[in-house]
Fold each of these.
Amino acid sequence: MATRTASPRKRPLQGRSKHTVAMILEATARVLTSHGYDRTTTNLVAETAGVSIGSLYEYFPNKEGLVAALASAHVAELVARVDAVLALPCEETPRAVVAALVRAGLEAHRVAPALHKVLVEQVPRIGALADAMAVSAVLQAKIAADLQRRAPALPPARVRMVALVLETCIEALTHRAVVEAPDWLETGEIEREALRLLEPYIERALGP
Amino acid sequence: MATRTASPRKRPLQGRSKHTVAMILEATARVLTSHGYDRTTTNLVAETAGVSIGSLYEYFPNKEGLVAALASAHVAELVARVDAVLALPCEETPRAVVAALVRAGLEAHRVAPALHKVLVEQVPRIGALADAMAVSAVLQAKIAADLQRRAPALPPARVRMVALVLETCIEALTHRAVVEAPDWLETGEIEREALRLLEPYIERALGP
DNA sequence: CGATAATCCGAGCGTTTACTCAGCTTCTCA
DNA sequence: TGAGAAGCTGAGTAAACGCTCGGATTATCG
């Protein structure tokens, strides 16, 4: 079983192996959503991808590595979206920024709700997976920095708390929508309600 | 491995066996917090409890059963606390009810934050565990019913949405505090901030 | 073309671990 | 007090599954 800490593996150089890696990741996502984390075996992933188990282990150190790759792709996308929002000009009202953050969180989960559900509910947050899935701290720091920039007068401790609340609620509402009612992701109902919750909060927190 | 669906086992009748079961559950909690879910083996639990593995399987159908017992105890406590809050007289303001709900959520997690952290982060929500850990829907229904009682004029769909937001945010903030800053559970800082967020929201939602 | 590197293959090894069972000990109660 | 019920024991079983390894196949390039 081993569970070694993600040892370095061969990197795909030729187009052939790049394709193989892509197939493996795609298969991982498919197996994960259809079988769940526990019943996802490396052999099944390889078979589903149409490659041999040996090839799989050329590029991924272990089962964790497969899932971590998917998770960090998602995390990277989310971070990118948030960065884009926080690059908005300083003149934007806090409401607008919050609205954009909510939208960013929701957009990032529209792609593959079923996969996200498995990731959230079944994948144990330990080892490499823990790091891969620990976005919240990063996002909170980014949001806090941005808030501080827009409201320099506020004490940093206060800003951090507000960032925590914002990030926590956006993530929670997004995930609830993903796991309990994917429809609401489409209709935008969750988005509207999140704003009803967070806009007054941010106005009071930053405003006079 | 099997993973059969929680088959019925012997129930502890004499005081001796009741004590054994208690020891096993206590050991489960200890091993869970110190080793994590994956590294929690039934043999280790039995050893830690000071009983034989055979005795363990007299009372618990499988590994899931152990964890499910802990989880549903926690869930039962939480539900009881929420029920107590919702039994408050109708004259109470919505703010007061929300404050009480926040407090209930936080109180229920003060007992064993480390255990809750493992339960939330590492235990896969599948099979028996899924049921055991699916409180949110139940709580939302209870909260919705109460809100409707206090504001009969509101459309049911709207009430359900508000209940979802309330329950989601309380749980999320509570869990964040548990896993990221158990201190804030004690200081009451999280509680105050949660109210700053939720009181304006509920007033607008129920009010004129 | 020949040589070297990159890629791919898949049977099977070794370990882990949930769980059983046959027999022993302790309790209950008529 | 003794017979049956309840409880306890722990070495052993069986099966799952992650992962390796020796070797075949294909690409790259002088």
Amino acid sequence: MELSQRKEKILAAVVEHYIKTGEPVGSKTLLSALDITVSSATIRNEMAELAALGYLEQPHTSAGRIPTNEGYRYYVDNLMGVRPLDESVKRQIEAGVSLKNASPEAILAKASEFLADMTDCAAVSTTPSGENATIKRIEFVPVGTRTGMIVLLTSTGVIKSKVCRSDVDLNSSMIEKFYNIVKSSFLGLPLDDIDTATLQTLVASMGADALTMIPFVSAVSELAQEAMRTMVMLGGQSNILRYREDYGTTAYELMDFLRRGEPISQLLANSKEDFDVKIGGENKFKQLENSSVIMAHYNIDGDNRGSIGIIGPTRIDYASLIPSVRYLTDLVGELLTQTLNEG
Amino acid sequence: MELSQRKEKILAAVVEHYIKTGEPVGSKTLLSALDITVSSATIRNEMAELAALGYLEQPHTSAGRIPTNEGYRYYVDNLMGVRPLDESVKRQIEAGVSLKNASPEAILAKASEFLADMTDCAAVSTTPSGENATIKRIEFVPVGTRTGMIVLLTSTGVIKSKVCRSDVDLNSSMIEKFYNIVKSSFLGLPLDDIDTATLQTLVASMGADALTMIPFVSAVSELAQEAMRTMVMLGGQSNILRYREDYGTTAYELMDFLRRGEPISQLLANSKEDFDVKIGGENKFKQLENSSVIMAHYNIDGDNRGSIGIIGPTRIDYASLIPSVRYLTDLVGELLTQTLNEG
DNA sequence: GTTAGCACTCTTTTGCTATGAGTGCTAACC
DNA sequence: GGTTAGCACTCATAGCAAAAGAGTGCTAAC
């Protein structure tokens, strides 16, 4: 649906004013905000048509107009000025994500926290997916007479470690056996090939050694699972209280939603575009029906690997936050790529 | 201040009723809740005296009474029935904290999460303090041509690892040198002895090797810092919305307070008693002036090492939650002790 | 197509009047 | 002297009506 230029100008003004104030916008208010030489009556006519088209709505007869989700959508797709990011904001973001010698988890946790502070929204991010990763290296570090730490390194640079415990005292022959198993069965294996069936075959093939090796083998498999699982990093839950009225009764549900990693990683993985904006009910999740999500995906070595996003009320400041989220996400991607390739 | 038995009975009834309903309690309501054979007028007289003594207050003249912080304090110290925990609740708690082969961090994170769900409050816990810990073991695991992972194990069973990066390609002689330094300078050292001054002396004494060894040495020191730092585990922030009216305007500040680890670990470390209850303003932190904190300390090998607590509104159900927090904390202490000694 | 004007709608505010919960006080009672 | 019935008093709350105000939609004129 194409709108006339004037209608677009009016729609944009309504959206922007409402985003700023949270109050319904009337024709007179609009008149002073708009550099347009028509009367309020004309604006009223236009607004009535915009309402008929589904872009605006009235909370009640004697109130101004507020954008519908479709209104926001039209605004984001067609009207929003994509002004380039302020240099000072760029610097600020760069300072916010710079983190030397840190793990991907730490980098993303920091990024979420920073993004939340910067945008006054809740921020989420997912760690790189381990889908196409293989096992690059496995090491065993004894830490006690019967316990040791297994360290697993994947081809995507993820390092996971776990303490595991044997039923008998450790000795060098056991450790040697462990390394043999690792060399012959695990190295180079895609993470997702390590399922229960594989393990059972492996254990069966070990014969007499099976009993002592089981804790180690299963620890490796748990590590592989962990390395594959994308983790969700959260920041700024407290910001939900900032826009409490906008979320209405979904505020509690939204907070609760944020605790659960699984739906969030679904949400973020949902779109394959470079970046994406989901407005209100466009999100599949009921808990997000009063929220908008701005998300972007970061690449590691050019490969789309994870996402960073913010969750705010539908009257979130799209125009200025979208570029910020994108820029930050790109930076994080670069940082992660760099961290990975430095090894 | 000693109260008459009847006053105590009335105060207890007011506290319990208010905790349950959140509404001010009047003399007639009290009459039916109490198995006492006096008239409402007598109760009024008693309540007026309790108010004069500072244990009760009136939101306004025509309302019932609500407990003051002093009222809660008297209730907790003298009146609260310390009925033993229900067996079914015990089972529930035991199921909630059981976690095999997990790190202390994971155990405490799970415990916080579980406690929050169980009590409808926000829950916090601190990892064992590393104050008296020494370095028990340090290992180096190469993970790339120039990077390796350093694993540090303390006498208190804390395991920390960190990837570190050298400026030149790794070779076996460097690794050997590293182990020499570790053996001669780090093993057995108390964690808090590793400060910048020690490091500088150490680096100075290395002569020509200093340059290549610095990344490793400083990584070890960072790990020692990390191992010493108590971490704060959070659970159930969303529960703050549950008692939003009780927190009033401090709700946002409370949520924000929870994000910051430092003040929480101060809060929890504050009391040296076995367990402690802080009511409203008794907490030193302004953000907690409408909150009560129930906390207990867990022991590892009989040594007081960390804390678990819940933060709720002042009208929290002390009588039933205090035993729960204590029981859970004891269990976690046992679990951590066991985990530690299994190595 | 635009606009001035006006009637109309509906929320919000204000003021007023019950209503009722709950108190404090007094005087009588045991 | 403690207890209690009775009653006047206070004050939040609910309900209602009137007034104010914001904003609209429509019509008729430009």
